[in-house]
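Design review, sub-item: ligand-bound model
Attendees: FS, YL, KQ
YL presented the inputs for the EPU complex:
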Amino acid sequence: MTKYVINGGNQLYGEVEISGAKNAAVAIIPAALMVNGVCRIENLPQISDVVTLLNILKEMGADIRAVNKRTVDIDCTRVRTARATFDMMRRIRASYYLIGALLGRFGNAYVAMPGGCNFGGVRPIDQHIKGFTAMGAHVSVKNGVVSAETGKTLRGATVYLDVVSVGATINLMLGAALAEGNTYIENAAKEPHIVDLANFLNSMGADIRGAGTNVIKIRGVRKMSGGFYSIIPDQIEAGTYMAAVAGAGGRVVIKDVIPKHLEGISSKLREMGVTVVDLEDSIIVQRTDPLLKTNIKTMPYPGFPTDMQPQISTILCLASGTSTVTEGVWDNRFRYVDELSKMGSSIRVSGRTAIIEGVPHLTGAPIKASDLRAGAALVIAGICAHGETQLEGVSYIERGYEKMIQKLSALGADIKTIYVPDEPLAEEQEAG
Ligand code: EPU
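KQ shared the predicted structure:
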């Protein structure tokens, strides 16, 4: 088992480079299945979710070549199967994007679903199914496998999403790109990675308009052919380092970002007394004065992102006064609160709201990550705390953050990885 050992108390100074966006990469890699020819994808984050997805495509017959650490050539021309029911599919949430991609390419898809959710509550896919059904597919879910069949090909349709769903928007966009006729996705999600996927597909020959608004129009095309594409920077990775500097204090230049994607996070940090300066493709975050309380509700983009909720709640533990954080996207995303309470925080969860009383400091403790963003939040807690924190469950973090320990160490955090013998079986829950 791997643990992080963190000696808290150091302020953070210097520069950190942000990697490509995880949630764009995990949509764009399956999308390569729909392309005839070689897709060169640049700025891929070096995280285990990306490795898993590339291995899934390889198992299906794709030819994958690493050009360098962040660039791969994917050629799916020789893939002949619409079946992706491998065990490794169950490790990552984004495996469900293979449904849209395979339906688009073959008109049928047989895809293993990810297992139970690891931040509590359920993660339904009824909106994906509703959309594919409207597009003419017969969809059934049996023994953890989703089967979607059209006989021939998907047909364009108008689909109104009952909830703003990132996953359903992406999946339907994938299926619609090679469908017959026009598809309209109404009440679509607007996250930057949705726009990135649309840009990728358009650069390969698709015809998608309106991504980034709440109505996306997709005119189905007969085929897409290969090309080059570079993934956008990771909004949540950037936000996580912003929160780390805000919590620990110091001054860090966060490089290779799109400041507009970070507006929801920057404005809340400013309310908390943190200086955030937007430059062209970087931002400066500086915190010298004590943190101020605030109230936050997570919402779909451009609202405050749910994937930053654990990190911001963690630093609010150190703000003066009482803050509230309301989770507006997921039913339950507060499992990390028990771990923070071992470090001396004062948080009460009532329904979807956490009421956080600021404390003067947190104290290092043995704690455990239960999912990706909870893990990132607990690293921040360790950096801000007095004394030593030992964090277990770090494989979650490595699924979604490239070289987090190296990046934080370069900024002055005292954090190292240790290997503890007597490794238990790896947990098989999904990350994002
Ligand atoms: N929902 C439904 N029915 C559906 C789909 C979603 O009711 O068919 C509900 C969900 O239960 C939830 C809300 O709609 O309450 C939003 O879910 P969404 O579909 O947007 O989430 P997702 O696509 O499964 C992605 C990210 C998550 C991120 C959410 C929200 C990926 C791989 N995952 O999940 O990221 O929290 O959007 O922004 O893109 C993470 O990166 O740590 C992570 C969990």
